[in-house]
Design goal:
Blueprint lengths: L20 E5 L2 E4 L4 E4 L2 H4 L8 H13 L11 H13 L4 E7 L2 H17 L8 E5 L8 H6 L18 E3 L5 H13 L4 E6 L3 E2 L5 E2 L2 H14 L2 E5 L28 E4 L11 E6 H7 L18 H16 L4 H12 L8 E6 L4 E5 L5 H10 L2 E2 L6 E4 L7 H17 L14
Parallel strand pairs: 3-15, 5-6, 5-7, 7-10, 10-11
Antiparallel strand pairs: 1-2, 2-3, 4-12, 8-9, 11-12, 13-14, 14-16
């Protein structure tokens, strides 16, 4: 049979057939024969409240009956107006100008256009490039690809065909902080902004950094007068235990407030695609003019889709009503997965919020790892040298322990025999 579907992130010639899912319920995927798997990925971080939550479903169903879509150019509607107001209220300080788009990658592209436009309206037209960090990942569209690590990301093969941005190590210490400041100083005429994934670098290797690192980045942006752009498409909406990752700095004498904030994934509770780019007032004001040509010329066809806005508003309702115990998820992941540190081929085990990561020294066959997980009733999608889980925030303790059991067992199953240990020792 011809492959009509070109599937993502896989070699179509050699990849095994994908699992077919016919229904979802709570934290579970359901197969054709009634098989159930705990979705430890929350559909790439998005299904934060689990699947088919009645409050979200009812909101979307009601909106579908009224108005599934309308263009947003010259037209507005209550779901979008309400959502923008709520997001502006939730975001730090004066991050209160919400631009809608239809995916996380596009939200990043919009942030790039905002930053370039901002400086052009301040007589700095040469500022058209960006600085991002080693192991960064910011999306799959062309502009977003250019921000990803040019050597260590899945987009490395395209590095000669896209805009060359600046990449430096995260400023974890004085040496790397000096490198960041040096590059910003040497290229101050061309750098419009600095992109960072606050506290958690996602698809670039599931790497964590601390609040001090984030503060150093903010200080460097202030020193060299460039915009700070936070990509919280993955980390937003309580994934790290706070509504936004930058909120971990809220108790500091000078909290980190990005000039532009990108959100997506969990925004609509895993029901459909939508993202937002939120700008502070000084960025918005750069475009606010009597001159029509000074407007932000961007407008995806399905931006502010009423169905997606209704889903997002319902999701925010649930965050207000449901005190998720992300700290409990982190504690279980940390306690259970820590035993894998004793496995010879495990380089690191790290957990933060509702994120658990096992990193291998010599990556095993990840398809074999995934097969072992599926046999144990758990769906995860390992990549690179990492086996990781980002479960729905509503996951119960029993299901979370099952995820941990599966990770432990699958790790043991793919270890070389001379490095293996009894499964009981790993629990």
């Amino acid at each position: 049979m011809m492959n009509s579907v070109w599937r993502p992130y896989c070699q179509m010639k050699t990849a095994p057939p994908p699992m077919k899912i016919v229904a979802t319920e709570g934290c579970h995927l359901i197969g054709e024969n009634g098989e159930r798997w705990i979705d430890g990925m929350a559909s790439w971080w998005s299904a934060c409240h689990g699947y088919n939550h009645p409050h979200v479903r009812e909101a979307v169903t009601a909106q579908l009956q009224r108005m599934p879509h309308v263009m947003f150019g010259g037209i507005t509607h209550d779901p979008a107006e309400c959502l923008a107001s709520r997001l502006a209220e939730m975001a730090p300080e004066d991050l209160n100008h919400v631009f809608f788009s239809d995916s996380g990658s596009v939200a990043v592209e919009v942030a790039m256009k905002m930053a370039i436009g901002h400086w052009r309206r301040h007589d700095r037209p040469g500022r058209t490039r960006f600085l991002a960090f080693e192991n960064a990942y910011h999306g799959d569209t062309t502009g977003a690809m250019s921000l990803c690590d040019p050597q260590r990301s899945m987009h490395a093969r395209y590095s000669g065909a896209i805009t060359q941005q600046f990449h430096v190590p995260l400023p974890r210490d004085e040496t790397t902080e000096a490198e960041l400041n040096r590059v910003l100083a040497e290229h101050s005429d061309s750098i419009a902004g600095v992109f960072v994934e606050p506290l958690v670098q996602g698809a670039g290797g599931m790497r964590f950094h601390d609040v001090n690192t984030l503060t150093r980045i903010r200080e460097a942006c202030r020193r060299h007068d460039v915009l700070l752009i936070a990509d919280e498409i993955a980390t937003g909406f309580q994934r790290t235990g706070k509504m936004f990752a930058v909120d971990h700095t809220a108790d500091l004498h000078s909290p980190v407030v990005p000039d532009i904030l990108c959100l997506g994934k969990a925004l609509t509770a895993g029901t459909m695609s939508m993202a937002v780019t939120i700008a502070r007032s000084h960025v918005f004001d750069s475009f606010y003019s009597d001159d029509p040509g000074a407007a932000l010329m961007h407008g995806p066809t399905f931006m502010a889709n009423p169905l997606a806005c209704s889903a997002a508003n319902a999701s925010l309702d649930l965050f207000e009503q449901t005190p998720y115990e992300v700290g409990n998820i982190e504690t279980i992941l940390r306690e259970r997965l820590s035993v894998l540190r004793d496995v010879d081929n495990v380089a690191d085990v790290r957990c933060f919020g509702a994120i658990g990561v096992v990193q291998f020294r010599d990556p095993p066959n990840m398809q074999t790892v995934q097969d072992e997980l599926v046999r144990r009733g758990v769906w995860l999608r390992p990549f690179g040298d990492c086996l990781y889980t980002t479960p729905p925030l509503c996951i119960d303790d029993e299901s979370l322990h099952q995820v941990c059991d599966a990770v432990i067992d699958a790790t043991h199953a793919v270890m070389p025999q001379n490095n293996s240990r009894e499964v009981n020792q790993l629990r």
